[in-house]
Amino acid sequence: MTGHTELAKRFGTPSYVYDLDRVAKARDDLFAALPDEVELFYAAKANPHPEILREMRAGDGRVCRAEISSTGELTAVLQAGFDGADVLYTGPGKTEEELTEALTQGVRLFSVESLGDLRRIGETAVRLGVTADCLLRVNNATGAAVTSIRMTGVPSQFGFDSETLPALAPELRDVPGTAIAGLHFFPLSNAKDEASLIAEFRHTIATAAALQKQLGVPFRLVDIGGGFAAPYAVRGERPVYTDLRDNLAAALDEHFPGWREGAPRIACESGRYLVSGSGTLLIGVVNVKESRGRRFLILDGGINTFGGMSGLGRIMPVSVEPDEARGEAGVPASLVGPLCTPGDVLGRDVALPDIAPGDVLTIPNAGSYGPTASLLMFLGRPAPAELVVRGEELVSVSRIQHIRTYEHGQAL
Ligand SMILES: *Cc1c(COP(=O)(O)O)cnc(C)c1O
Description:
This protein is of the alpha/beta class. It has two domains: 20-274, Alpha-Beta Barrel (TIM Barrel); 277-399, Beta Barrel (Lyase, Ornithine Decarboxylase, Chain A, domain 1). Helix content is 25%, strand content 25%. The chain has ten helices and 20 strands. The strands form three sheets. Strands 1, 13, 14, 15, 16, 17, 18, 19 and 20 form a nine-stranded mixed β-sheet that branches. An eight-stranded parallel barrel has the order 2-3-4-5-6-9-11-12. A two-stranded antiparallel ribbon has the order 7-10. A hairpin with a 2-residue loop joins strand 13 and strand 14 (294-299). The radius of gyration is 23 Å and the shape is globular. It starts with a helix and ends in a 13-residue tail after the last strand. The model is unreliable at 311-317 (pLDDT under 50). Bound molecules: pyridoxal-5'-phosphate (PLP). Pyridoxal-5'-phosphate is lined by residues 43, 45-46, 67, 90, 186, 189-190, 226, 228, 269-273, 368. Pyridoxal-5'-phosphate (PLP) is lined by residues 43, 45-46, 67, 90, 186, 189-190, 226, 228, 269-273, 368.
């Protein structure tokens, strides 16, 4: 793609390119796949770039709320035009400082992982003279969908175990400074296919309805989670869900007859679906070498630029393409980064045509879990440039920078 070649020449590599038109399309597609009444939280951790965050609020149609988990993400979403009231604050380790900041900035909706978490939120809310609406996060004993990233049904730092939650009801209802507003589920990421996604949502909705009866609290909001899929660092298109809307509505009609009137309101969450396809990583080839019969392409960015989550075994291998078509795929090669660790691998046995130092490779579907999910500081290279485009128009060029600050005068 000539556009990418020009951008790589002008701004160097490694560089991310995010296309806001593609973000808008994904946002509109996902809203269209959900019943009109369903709200959508954008998980800021997928890509907290300011212009991407702003795009979640843009357009003429429905706009996203924000799901965040730190003071840094709170600042980012507020600066991008979200209001404190648009925010859902999640995470297993919310500190008093973070809670104070969030409540002071107008955040009133929290996902709660345990009784201790609820009490800490309550204490902070009481001190500030406000009430925090709390969604009890549920670690469901069972699931339905096929996925590589499941987080429920096993011991976990996330959520209340569904089987013991009802017994806690009297204590949960009684925490000053808090009100139980409903439930929060996030059982999986990246569901295998639409049938899996629908099965999981049906299961979640049935569980939520059963828990409402057992807890004896009328819910105002049920966040049924996500699992919306997108290719990550490999070629392909994100799915467009055609049956989800009707199936969700039918399951909600069955279990929460008042949902269309907002009793309870229903919400979903998504990160990767909304942003993965908007991004391309341009990465330069520094060196090519052979060792004991294996070919290595040494790139100017590795797990400090992308795939810092590879240590979790989540994402490899990437697929890459040279930026110009250049004949047949040749000898398979290992794609490695510049870091002084054998763990700096972006892909193994990747078949590419003849590649020479100075070439630029592109990694597709790299708009989620990019720079901020990488080992940015390891070995001290600059963060990649992040170029934002809207179609053919270049909107902004930026780069994350780390600065060490000293507290002068502090004796050791
Ligand atoms: C990470 C996360 C998401 C986003 O997950 P995707 O797979 O990127 O859609 C949504 N909700 C919660 C609670 C999360 O932790």
